[in-house]
Amino acid sequence: MNKVSYFIVNAFTTELYKGNPAAVCLLDTAIPESTMQKIAQEIPVPTTAFVQKKDNDFFLRWFTPAKEIPICGHGTIASAFLLWKQGIVPVNSSITFQTFSGPLQAIWFNELVEITIQKYQLEEIECSLELEEWLGMKPTYVGKTELDYIVELSHEEYIADFKANFHAMKQFPVRGVCITSISKDEGIDIVSRFFSPAQGIDEDHVNGSTHGALGPYWCEKLSKESIVSKQLSKRGGLLYVTPKIKDVAIAGSAVRVLSGEILI
């Protein structure tokens, strides 16, 4: 039997039991996609990232316990953090991840891992009766990206107290639903939660990719160049978001909490 080394890294936090945990598997050689999926089912975290070095680049793929996914912000943050902390890449060097969604860049900046993700076009839509019933209230705003619904509610308490009906979400033609509002806390601009049972994740602890739409939306609404975003899941996490002309920079802390080997 062969072995694969893996590490659990909590992204968007400096605390051991907070943020969004990702497993990062460092591959010396390619392994079958079916084996990647089995490993993701075996390791009890929302996302498992597989990193393989080829020449000067790193190839990166992400799997939930249910399926391979096209983008994962916290899995990318965790992967970059690990490559620097393990000494595989010098901290003063950037990292280019080659993915099926295109190249992703990561840099170490002010003790944070910063990645640049796609800026998602957000189109305002009318709130359907089904979505309003699911929310249990009339939203302030509903937008749709190529992936998700982005829903603004009027108060942070609605975000914190929201109880999602995951069965009812099966009717929504999207990857997930992000609910968001202005934060009431000093130093935090916005709050959000993200639900994505279609990916096998009922509620994502901290979701990075939705900020490809949340960042531009809230920066324009608040007349800011960047925002601090807090995810109000049970584990919670902080993201520092800066929209640019063609993409969005997302930065966060990370902490390594576990390492091991898995047989394949």
From TrEMBL:
Membrane-crossing segments per the record: none
Q: Which UniProt keywords apply?
A: Isomerase
A Pfam family recorded for this sequence: PhzC-PhzF
Show the InterPro entries listed in the entry: Phenazine_PhzF-like (IPR003719)
| UniProt-listed NCBIfam families | PhzF_family
Q: Which family does it belong to?
A: Belongs to the PhzF family.
Q: What is this protein called?
A: PhzF family phenazine biosynthesis protein
Organism for this UniProt entry: Lysinibacillus xylanilyticus
